[in-house]
Amino acid sequence: MFKSIQQRLLLRHPLLWNTKIVPMGVLLLTLSLCFFILGFALNGISFEESHRNFFDFDATLVLLAIVISLLVLILWLVHYFKNNVLKSFYPTSKYHVFKEWGLIFVLCFGLTTPIFWYNLGKETRYRSYFSREELEKRCATLRAGSFFLDGSYSYHEIDNNAVVEAAAADTVIVDSVETNSEVRNYFMYRGKKYKNTSLLNKNVNSYTIFDKKSDSLAIEKLKFWLVSQQKDSLKQLFTDYLKIAKEHQLESNINAEKWLTLINDYPLFEKSHTIGPQMTNDEYFPEMYNNQTVVRDTIDRYIARDKTGTEQEFYKYYVPEKQLNFNYGRMADAYIDPDITIETLIIPVYFALGLSLLILSFRVTSGRSWLIGLIAVIILNIILGICSAIITSSFTYGIGYCIAFIIVSVLFFNTVGQNRTKGYSGVVLNLFLWLLPGLIPLLYELINSYLSMQYSADYAVNFHNSKAYLFVQWMEDHVFEINWANIFLIGMAMLLIGKKIRLWRGIAEA
Hints:
Blueprint lengths: L1 H11 L1 H6 L1 H21 L15 H24 L15 H16 L2 H14 L4 H15 L9 E4 L2 E4 L20 E4 L2 E4 L16 H16 L3 H17 L8 H8 L16 E4 L17 E5 L5 E5 L5 H16 L9 H19 L2 H25 L4 H23 L6 H11 L3 H19 L9 H11 L1 H27 L5
Helix pairs in contact: 3-5, 3-6, 5-12, 5-18, 6-11, 7-9, 7-11, 9-10, 12-15, 12-18, 13-14, 13-15, 14-15, 14-16, 16-17
């Protein structure tokens, strides 16, 4: 089938025939589908896991994708470079070079996306377990339940009559009044004083599906339930939590009523029992408790040997919080903070852009010019790097890069415009094509650095309202849009440059 299609393309569309777009397209689509299926099939959630496995299968897939892509690229290049209409002076249209580059870019993009499709399959699998609405409901239950488990407390410190809280990860703000320059061992809530180790001072395990305001409101509701003794609401919360655990066949050794009894040390909640987020805590080291400031909990924990014979500290009461938090966190991330977005897509796009320009430059010039151009680019970057280190300025590399681009642009267009002999213009053309993608990103950095210096100099004059600061903020907020604009402008530039390359190919060598 492919042979007959290629025969037709040879007669009617020689460019499509030469680039092998049909067989390569089918191959790359099949490869992408295979990696998507691998991502979906290999990333089912095992709710018994509480952390990422030591063996990272994703890294193996990355290596496999790189090897396969390199093999396909080499085989394609071998066939692609067999015939070159530009070097054979075959009659072509004025947009031939642009079309050829476009096809090369599409194929290079296909070669760089297997991992993209693998991650998309993985995140699709994570999202397939629950709808976002159901996931939010479950995460809210797990977040609320974590408040009553062994975990961190909020840290209260008063400085200059203001509260400064520095809690562990996923902490939320709690009420605190009174002034004191030192850390207090109590805090105030609704006009009453509680110890920092009170259950009311606990933090929660948050999820990316919620923001900090939502966490704060959830904590406030739980604290209100405790101080107002809304036992029915608390019991229903614990029932829903344990129902989720049971659904995933995870073990706990308490029920909702027992859980409520263990934590409900009304009114101060200072002697609430500790409920573990898993059966075991940590490996037991007796010397750890030689320090008098560390007291071992002998009421809610006990020492025993695990299946391997290692002494472990076990919780007397526990629920499977570690497993639930880890796995529901992965599902929440797949919705809120996925690896595959329009922003991350720009990475394979830029890689495909660079690779396509490297291939095109070799296609339109010669191996000798291409190699000399490569050496020239390396030397240019070494010189600019040395100059930047000597001058110690953030502008040196960018300005030098722009100057080099202007020089090679003038040399190339001057050669085409005056119809001179090619000479070393093949090297110049290679430099022009390779420097083009980095022009706008470096201009972005130059403008950003310059404006940052401007508003930093005006630090004393409310710089947050200065035009320089506002423009820098706008640039940083639209960095991805700027990069996509750069891709589009390079495409438009190649439309013009393609016609010039075609004219340049007709100039005598010497």
